[in-house]
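During the no-cost extension, the postdoctoral fellow (Dr. R.K.) reprocessed legacy sequence entries with the updated structure-token encoder. One reprocessed record is reproduced below for audit purposes.
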Amino acid sequence: MDQKILEEFLVKAKINTYASSGEGGEKVLEDGSKELTYEKGNFKYRDRYFGYNPFIGEEIVWKDGKIIWAMNYYGRITSDSPTAKEIYSFLRKALRQASEIEILRGPKSFYKENFKYINRTEGNLWNFFGTEKIFYINDEVYELIYHGGFIQEK
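Re-encoded structure tokens follow.
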């Protein structure tokens, strides 16, 4: 698997799903989960999650119909102010800053008005874990943990 090709696909998939459409842009499935998908060439990406606050989900990438990469995540809002809508709106702005260098969630840091996004990752695309946090003024208002990596079928 060419890592550069996967990185380019993941950036496009992430920016063109939750980071752009957010809550309301997804398909609601029979089991209550919400799903966003993106396909290009022989790659397919799916982000499926349950809940709103807190929420849990997974992102999966297939190439030629075989799973090759996945990430699990769990997040929650940790404060009553600002509103969840404001926090998630800022989160989408931060996630749209994804690049092939900072691919797993958003950038290492992003600031806009009174909001600050911080992302810390250990490992690499093939085996990683990390946390992202949002601060409003100086108070933490959101946190998410994530982990994942390369998947090889038997």
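The chain has a mean pLDDT of 91. The longest strand covers residues 66-77. The remaining legacy entries will be reprocessed before the final report is submitted.
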